[in-house]
Amino acid sequence: MKKTILLSFLLITWASCAFAQTEVEEEFRQRGPQTTAAVSSDAVRQGNWIVGASIGNIGFNFDSDFFTLNVNPRAGYFVSDNAVLGTEVQLGLDIYDGGETFRYGLTPFARYYFPEGAAPTHRWFGEALAGIAGSSEEDSEGDAVFSGVIGLRAGYAHFVAQNVALEGILGYTHTSADISVGNGQSGLNLAVGLQVYLPGRNR
Predict the structure, then answer these.
(1) How far apart are CA 92 and CA 107, in angstroms?
(2) Which of 69, 78, 156 is nearest to 110 (CA)?
(3) Dihedral angle over CA of 190, 196, 197, 200, nearest 10
(4) How far, in Å, CA of 50 to CA of 165, rounded?
(5) What residue stretch is flagged as signal peptide (predicted)?
(6) Which of 8, 45, 59, 197 is most buried, by CB atoms within 10 Å?
(7) SS3 breakdown of the chain: % helix, strand, coil, rounded to 5?
């Protein structure tokens, strides 16, 4: 009798655990890892901050032993809903056979998130920037060591968490300082970045 009761108890326990595990597995399959978050307009409200960075170009050429990297950390403040004023630091490095070039700059920017086409998980935005930049290269014709920078950008922010977004940015930049646009002058640049949206003190 005791063996029968013990066996029944073990079978019931095993069946309960198996059922619970099946439910957990099914819920995980339905939810999966978080790749998006519904934030509506909370992240782009007046008084919030953004902090992040974008990588404009990273690569290595095995034939010429040429390595390049451009990183642009940034911070901004929402002066009104959808509108940000901030500053971006331009940092670039080229390493090649025979030397290296370091590029730098400081570019204030204005960004606007368009209400048109907005969704709970993403926002489109436009951006304008103007500042100064330089490089460690010696001055030569068409490549100034220190120069002004102006640019226009369009981008897409996809929220992967309530206050974190992945961004894709396509921009046009004009400069003579050899910063993020090949050999200077002007050009298009495609960048990817990560942006953190921080609520203001009054939120």
Answers:
(1) 14
(2) 78
(3) -130
(4) 10
(5) 1-20
(6) 197
(7) 15, 55, 25
In contact, 125 and 112? CB cutoff 8 Å: yes
Decide if 197 contacts 165 (C-beta within 8 A): yes
Expressed in angstroms, the distance from the first to the final Cα of the chain is 65
Please identify, in words, the CATH class of the domain defined by 39-198.
Answer: mainly beta
Positive or negative CA dihedral for 67, 140, 135, 172? negative
- Residue 187: what are its φ and ψ, rounded to 5°? 175, 170
**CA-to-CA distance for 142 and 170, rounded, in angstroms?**
24
Specify whether the backbone of 17 is left (phi greater than 0), alpha (psi in -120 to 50) or beta.
Answer: alpha
What is the tens place of the pLDDT at every residue in 25-35?
454 445 555 56
Q: Report the C-alpha gap between 197 and 163 in whole angstroms.
A: 5
DSSP code for 9: H
Quote the CA–CA distance of 150 and 170 in Å, as a whole number.
14
3-state secondary structure 21-87: HHHHHHHHHHHCCCCCCCCCCHHHCCCCEEEEEEEEEEEEECCCCEEEEEEEEEEEEEEECCEEEEE
pLDDT tens digit string along 175-201?
Answer: 765 544 444 445 777 889 999 999 887
Query: Residue 164 is which amino acid?
Result: V
Tell me the domain boundaries of the chain.
Answer: 1-32, 39-198
